[in-house]
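Translate structure to sequence.
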């Protein structure tokens, strides 16, 4: 395995989970000796042929070759693949990142028909592209086309894996979780108390953090109820919104953000909500360490496809979130191909194996879990963590114990194993001179 080509609609400096995921995966693959080409959106001439970054034995080169993701992308990617000659082309699929256009969905079939390169697709979610009004079931059909024609299909969480498995059309289906896109690496001179004071947090103030863009699926407006209730208790509290306000891929987030900000103003909470804007990973790490509680009220339930959740767990932040709907929480587990770290936490060394299970979030052990949309329960859970330092410490330790299973070296190793298995399975049969297999 020498060369992998990752195809993504967003990549740093774009802000977004898929952008950060692709960067982390590219770097981790390169660190294991693979050369990675990233094919992404063209923005400036300087990004068209960016110089490669050497990482360990491999490297990463970013090519901004796609003006937009409409039908001409088929020929653009075809030409790029013929030039680069990778062993695998791996699409990082999220329809919003590709402008909601269905052209990317047909790329695996196109490459399979006109090239010999092997293809893979990772579904970062199963949201459907836009086709035309009342497209209905056709959107779901188009959404599953990449799985039908890719040699390898990757799901990042149990719920999506179950949907793809039930559909039953993927040639090879794997469950490989994402990792935290924010390493636990605050600035070298970091001091928690000093950092809080330097950023205007008075002593005795409770710091709540939310990490990630705002949209309806993340339940961000529930945060306002939490801050208002804690203020009503007479507590000094600040909610720090880490990162940019909306992502580059989904313009519908702007309306939700406007509603959020209007609600904050109407309730007189402007001084209690602080936006950091887009900041370096080291400063995100600093804010996560400065937090008393991470509040992540996902409307669709906590999921291991959420990089923001994994970042909080990686940093050992006491976390209040919503009960999962995809096998992440309590006694439910993922039973497809996943991490099996074992009792000796071998995931630290990067050992992903078939047939394991992703560790569940357990209420009171690795997080506090409440029903999505139950703001009263959300407020109560945050209060318990703020009022019980022993519980907060216990949750922080439990969070780290879960996060140890999601290292990027392990994730990259599992990708390489999957790639190798596919290449072996699809290896051409060499014929002898008498026409028989040699």
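Result:
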């Amino acid at each position: 395995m020498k060369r992998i080509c990752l195809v993504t609609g967003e990549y740093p400096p774009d802000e977004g989970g898929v952008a950060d995921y692709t960067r982390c995966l590219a770097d981790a693959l390169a660190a294991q000796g693979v050369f990675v080409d990233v094919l992404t959106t063209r923005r400036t001439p300087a990004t068209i042929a960016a110089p490669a970054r050497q990482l360990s034995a491999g490297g990463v080169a970013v090519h901004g070759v796609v003006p937009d993701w409409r039908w001409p992308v088929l020929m653009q990617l075809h030409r790029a693949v013929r030039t680069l000659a990778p062993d695998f082309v791996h699409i990082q699929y999220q329809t919003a990142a590709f402008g909601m256009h269905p052209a990317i969905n047909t790329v695996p079939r196109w490459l399979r028909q006109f090239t010999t390169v092997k293809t893979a697709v990772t579904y970062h979610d199963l949201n459907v592209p836009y086709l035309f009004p009342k497209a209905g079931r056709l959107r779901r059909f188009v959404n599953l086309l990449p799985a039908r024609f890719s040699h390898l299909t990757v799901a990042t969480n149990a719920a999506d894996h179950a949907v793809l498995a039930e559909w039953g059309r993927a040639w090879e289906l794997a469950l490989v979780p994402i990792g935290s896109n924010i390493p636990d690496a605050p600035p070298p001179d970091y001091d928690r108390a000093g950092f809080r004071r330097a950023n205007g947090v008075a002593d005795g103030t409770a710091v709540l953090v939310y990490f990630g863009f705002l949209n309806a699926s993340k339940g961000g407006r529930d945060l306002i109820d939490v801050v208002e209730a804690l203020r009503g208790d007479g507590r000094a509290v600040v909610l720090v919104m880490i990162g940019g306000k909306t992502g580059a891929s989904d313009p519908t987030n702007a309306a939700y953000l406007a509603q959020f900000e209007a609600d904050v103003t109407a309730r007189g909470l402007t001084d209690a909500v602080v936006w950091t804007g887009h900041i370096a990973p080291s400063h995100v790490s600093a804010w996560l360490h400065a937090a008393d509680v991470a509040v992540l009220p996902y409307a669709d339930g906590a999921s291991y496809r959420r990089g923001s959740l994994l970042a909080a767990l990686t940093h050992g932040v006491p976390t209040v979130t919503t009960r999962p709907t995809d096998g992440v929480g309590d006694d439910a587990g993922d039973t497809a191909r996943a991490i099996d770290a074992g009792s000796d936490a071998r995931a630290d060394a990067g050992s992903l194996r078939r047939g394991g299970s992703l560790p569940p979030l357990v209420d009171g052990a690795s997080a506090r879990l409440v029903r999505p949309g139950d703001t009263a329960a959300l407020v109560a859970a945050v209060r318990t963590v703020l009022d019980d330092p022993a519980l907060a410490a216990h949750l922080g330790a439990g969070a780290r114990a879960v996060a140890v299973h999601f290292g990027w070296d392990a994730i990259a190793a599992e990708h390489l194993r999957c790639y190798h298995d596919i290449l072996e399975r699809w290896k051409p049969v060499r014929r002898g001179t008498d026409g028989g297999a040699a």
